[in-house]
Amino acid sequence: MDWEHISKYLKAQGWVILLVLGSLSFFFMSPDFTLGLFLGGLIIIANFSALQSSIRSAFTPEGTMLNKKNAIVAKYYLRLAILGIIIYILVTTKIVNVLGLLVGLSIIVINILILGVRFALKISSGEAV
After folding, report:
1. Do the Cβ atoms of 54 and 66 come closer than 8 Å?
2. Other CB atoms within 10 A of residue 93 CB
3. What is the distance in angstroms between the CA of the first residue and the CA of the last residue of the chain?
4. Partners of 65 in the beta sheet?
5. Between vectors from CA 92 to CA 102 and to CA 84, what angle results, nearest 5°?
6. What gap in Å lies between CA 70 and CA 76, rounded to an integer?
7. I need a surface site. Which of 28, 38, 43, 91 has the fewest CB within 10 A?
8. Measured between alpha carbons, how far is residue 125 from residues 2, 23, 56, 115 in Å?
């Protein structure tokens, strides 16, 4: 599989995981937990997409760097600072449940784990990846 397929899979699967976890949370958990889960998921999916976009714009398809390294690093730290401020505001104002927020922020990690298991099962069954 090339990066285009993996990227599309990760984006679509991230939304599916967020909707499934959010739906289950809506019925079985408190409203502030559900809100935290949804906001954490939205934040991390947006951050993942922004990271992918800035990396794609920094390199050509052949792998040659278009932008200066310092600009890429500055964008990364700016995005990380904004993410930290948003999380700080959500936690300190107690709008959301912290555990729900952590579960939401873990959606990309869960997504990558599912992808790894999927690849491992394909390899062990002898399918071409």
Report:
1. no
2. 8
3. 6
4. 59
5. 60
6. 10
7. 28
8. 20, 33, 33, 15
Only one residue has tokens 């932008």, namely 67
What type of residue is 114? I
Tell me 112's DSSP state.
Answer: H
Residue with tokens 């990396």: 55
CA-closest candidate to residue 44, choices 15, 73, 72, 21: 15
**Mind listing the pLDDT tens digit of every residue in the chain (129 residues)?**
677 788 888 889 999 999 999 999 999 999 999 999 999 999 999 998 888 888 777 777 776 776 677 878 888 899 999 999 999 999 999 899 999 999 999 999 999 999 999 888 888 877 655
Rounded to whole angstroms, the Cα distance separating 11 from 7 reads 6
Q: Which residue has the tokens 């976890």?
A: 21
Biggest distance spanned by C-alpha atoms of the chain: 51
Which one-letter amino acid corresponds to residue 35? L
Q: How far is CA 86 from the centre of its chain?
A: 15
**Token pair belonging to 111:** 């997504």
Q: ∠ CA 66-72-78 to the nearest 5 degrees?
A: 150
Identify the bridge partners of residue 59 per DSSP, sorted by sequence position.
Answer: 65
